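REQUEST ID: PR-0412
SUBMITTED BY: lab tech R.K.
PRIORITY: routine
TASK: structure prediction, single protein chain
INPUT:
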Amino acid sequence: MHFAVYAYVGESSNRPLLYYENSFAGIAVLLRTLIENQRIPVVFSSTCATYGLLRVPITEDHRQHPINPYGSSSLSACWQRFAYGLPWVALLYFNAAGADPNGQIGEAHDPETHLIPLVLAAARTGIPVRIFGADDDTSDGACVRDYIHVTGIADAHVRALEYLSRRQRPRE
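STATUS: complete
OUTPUT:
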């Protein structure tokens, strides 16, 4: 499973080479190693940013047209696997949120950029949170966001690997 990419849209626009080196060139090294040695299944933890501007609902045939280096570099990484026929699943999910339900692990950002932790901090401290965007096609212009809990993401990755593993076994 491949999780080693940078994931900040704003930073990707300010430092695009960093994102192409990490997402595109980094996965190219991994794929070259797999092609030259052993073609094991790859589950790539990717992003909905490969779609660019979205229509709702998003379907499997939604056109991928990224509008920033984060989405573009992730899509470029996905394209590499076609040329070599590697067993591959890319999961393109939206905003990850949450932590381990048992409180064993979680994540901390410095500075924090994710909306849910910022809103919780605002409720705790009284310091207002800044919400970006005011021109979406909603009653107040605010954007609508989709979230997926991290345990759902973990489950999807395990299921994707199980799927690829079943396809790799010789048929009896």
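NOTES: The radius of gyration is 18 Å.
REVIEWED BY: pending
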